Amino acid sequence: MNREKDLQIKVVISLVLGGLILWGSFPGLMVTSPTILQNFWVQLLLATPVQFWAGWEFYQATLPALRHRTANMDTLVAIGTSVAFSYSAFVTIFPQVMENIGIKPEPYFDVSTIIIGLILLGRYFEAKAKAGTSEAIKKLIGLQAKTARVLVDGQEKDIPIDQVVVGNVIRVRPGEKIPVDGVIVEGESSIDESMITGESMPVDKAKGDIVVGATINKSGTFTYKATKVGSDTMLAQIIKLVQEAQGSKAPIQRIADLISSYFVPIVIMLAIVTFVGWYVFGPSTSSGQVPLLFAMLNAIAVLIIACPCAMGLATPTAIMVGTGIGAEHGILIKDAESLETAHKINTVIFDKTGTLTKGKPVVTDIKTTGNRMYNSDMLILSRAVALEKSSEHSLAEAILEYGRNLGIEGETIPKVKYFKAIPGFGIEGVVNNQKVFLGNRKLMDRENVIYEKNLTDIEKFENDGKTVMMLAANRKLAGLIAVADTLKDTAREGVQSLQKMGIEVVMITGDNKRTADAIADQVGIKRVLAEVLPDQKEAEVKKIQAEGKKVAMVGDGINDAPALAAADIGIAMGTGTDVAIEAADITLINKDLKSVAHAVELSQKTMRTIKLNLFWAFGYNIILIPVAMGILYSFFHLLLNPIFASVAMATSSISVVTNSLLLKRVKI
Amino acid sequence: MSFDKLLVLFMGIAGIIFTYWFFLMKKEKEVVVENEVDVVVEGGYSPEMISIPKGKLTKINFIRKDPGSCLEEVVLGDFRIRQYLPLNEKVTVEITPQNTGEYTYSCGMNMFHGKIIVK
Q1: Whole-prediction pTM value?
Q2: Does position A605 have pLDDT exceeding 70, yes or no?
Q3: Residues of B in contact with A264 (CB under 8 A)
């Protein structure tokens, strides 16, 4: 029988039997009950299965724990209900003894049975609610396709997903799930990647494009070659990351850890203090009750009301829900500490190229500079193509592409000798026995190339947000090539979302100040760090941190790794399967820049939930344990019935877990 | 003060001292682990304190014999591991600690604790 069903049966039987006992024993109510229910022996008979069958799990947990000299909530329930049951059984079996010592023989079987019933009921709801906190992982695992249609010798064959190997060619039809990661070799289609990236718009893909396992093929049929299978797929990596994040511990949890390790022994000591206090100093009543009853019932109330579980569940349940929601929206959070730190972020630095912009620059203008040796655009372009052919810089592809379109490719590209890349400056080499440089102003300054006569053209390009590359031959300016990178569609909105949250947005780039300012102006960024060499980005992050700011750095996760590591939170923006998950505290699988604000917002809301949970869990125990001890008796003559204590206790853990589940309503 | 009240007072003080000694003054024996260790999960973790070498892969095999829901998960927060432990099954957790120090782990509800000392 599964755990939930078992609990259901035990709850129903305990509460029905407890209800019958209560009917037959509660003052005012008992007069309406059948006489048989008022019989103490019948009550003993009804209470015994509840105590030793339904409540057996409390003993089962307590006895081995005591062997370890440790205790938990089950220990408190076992002690509390055992005291109530044993006292009641003694009163039933030896009523004369009680009368002889002046105590009216009244059993409290209703207390022991209803407490067990209600605590099991609380445990049932808690188990159901807790299952909801790990829903995200189950959903992610459920995304995995079961089979793949592999092409073998021209024939299609369905094989189990775990038998797919790298290199297999797989056919996918409309409406089908893509089994593993790979590259399209034939056909085209529109693919719904929302389950991985959180982006609702389908993405068009064609030959050469990467497809991700577990996404859905919408319209076309295509074949693709598997490149990642098993634990290497994007989905497997996401699942691993979310599982690890959910297993990590947030720094805020340390206080709960410390208290919970002392909590149960302290509650047992407080129960003893309560018993002694009421027995030695407590009042007698006219109804024949003596301090023993006050002492016993209040001590039981202390044991039952204490709720260590709420403290234990306060942080991890919220972390599990928070990281799960993030994963569903393409926001992967590395661990609980990152989630906690992200809520304090007040400055976000965006790397420009590839983060705010699409990272696919295109050549927009080529301009001669009056150099007689270089009097045509094609000549300038062919030298630039020759040099960039060996370069890995992001602007190289733009120039090569532009050259290809104009027929400069293959054998038509001049040969280059002594090629050298100068990071942050540009490139150099020897073409047709001429030393040629291609790069920015710094490179020209370094090589004493005069470009002041062309400043008007250069500044015009830069004011339009274009990056100007200068070509110099034999240390004389030969031409200008303007390259522009278009902003991502969500760049402006993403920046504004952060600014609305009161977060300062900074842009960092290797571009010169004028180009950088023009781009920053287009997206509404006021603070710009321009002309920053790649290896200086880390230092710039540290400078802003030195101003007392909590900094998040948003970059591509590969080229910006040192800066991401230096920031309080490193956010890597992925663009498909090449996402560098390990490099960052938070990885955004989608390309939507609003996700940065969403990640910070998710962190803020998760932390608010954790703080509320901890406040509730601590506050509950700090306020209600003294109430159970009888502190209100001296002021209002109020005492807490142990049955009400069990109601409070059962609801406290549920309320903490439910509060964590409310995070699911966060709209991001 | 009557005899019974004095007796209760005395027993109460003795009870508090016993509770403090029993739960809060226990000393756990450290078990030195080279490669692999079985940890029985029943009312806590046995052995409760293990010492393992730094920078070396150590396999910790958790075998849950306790049916209580409290112990059904083990959380090694410092190693970013939260693992469900099916009843009466061996579940292996592999860790390669990079730093020396004391790391506690706990059940999912943070009630039962174990300790890993990395040397």
Answers
A1: 0.81
A2: yes
A3: 23, 111
